[in-house]
Amino acid sequence: MLIDEIQVIKNIVESIDTSLSFKVVDNTLVTCNTSYVSKNYILTIGLEEYTVIDVVKDSLITLDRTVTDILETNTIIQSPKFRHGTINSVSIELTKDLSKPTYENYPLVFLLEELETNYTRFNIPYATSLVKLFFISQTDYQNYTIDEHHKNTINPLKGLVNGFLNSANLSKDIVTQSLNDFSTNLHPIMGFTDSNGYVDNYLEDNLSAIQLTINIPFYKNNKCCKN
Q1: Can you name the residues that pair with 118 across neighbouring β-strands?
Q2: CATH for 20-76, among 1.10.10, 3.40.50, 1.10.357, 2.40.30?
Q3: pLDDT value, residue 116
Q4: Is residue 172 within a helix (H) or strand (E), and if so which, with residue range?
């Protein structure tokens, strides 16, 4: 029986913790975990929406105005989107969706479909795949300084990668005690830069990404259908 790697990874992405706990102080949310919240993010607190104007990682989130409901202590963050395929196929999908609001496309977890899965039928783990995931967000690298780029784009992406790893460690489809080997690769510009400094974006948008390359060990799926 072959593993449905894509569905397992999609389930992990959809199970990323989207809760955000905080204490309200005027127009600031004091929190020990800013997760993947970034500048220009929309947060719903109580019955009102607020725009994030600044984030100090795992410390403070500053909003565009004073919070009305000062007794609120938590909210839900917009879930990341999941796409899978080749760079070209995902680029075509994203190009069709560029007219949509940013929050409907990003942040994005993109599974590159270059999956090679090795099976050991009578052992645990039953199968292991070397998986390449890209955690992607829009950015404004033309106008950001290097420090602003990292603060506003890269740091939230790191929070998203951490969220994925935490979610994977709770998955019942994965041999979590063997989930040890991974590496990350930063792509400040998700595209190709030639010798003249010209940028050709891979996904037809101004994006930054963190690539996570990880060996995922799977349990055998023993579910069966009854006639």
Answers
A1: 128
A2: 2.40.30
A3: 87
A4: none
